[in-house]
Amino acid sequence: MRARLDKLVLTANYKAKGRILLLPINGEGKCNLTFDNWDAGWKITVSKVTKNNKEYVQVDNSKLFFNTTRLHMYFENLFNGDKSLSENMNQFLNQNWNVLLTELKPALTEAMSQILQNVISGPFSKIPYNELFLE
What we know:
Pfam families: JHBP. By secondary structure, the chain is α+β, with helices and mostly antiparallel strands. It has a single domain, classed as TULIP domain (Bactericidal permeability-increasing protein, domain 1), CATH 3.15.10.30. The chain is built from 3 helices and 4 strands; from the N terminus they run E-E-E-E-H-H-H. The two termini are 21 Å apart.
């Protein structure tokens, strides 16, 4: 599968304790990741399984690959309430988005791939193969 989006916006709650690019981070709150010109490919491996004398599709594995021309990030409360430090860190992260993305891309692609796999596994497990794919 292939997808190209002008913008992909992900919002979530985060909790972080550690370092990003050697800088200490300790906080939790809402975050926003906005990808410009998101270009992705998603490869899934499936097999047929039989349940109750009917064939279904089972997703065995999936892998997402993506590129973007820009990543905009915003993490609120990066330093447990120190707004000035948090704003400065967000500015720094956005100025160095490409370095940060290189570091985070493996974890991001794994998480996105797992979410997509879970989304399609539900219908595949409930709709028989011959109703999904007409001869």
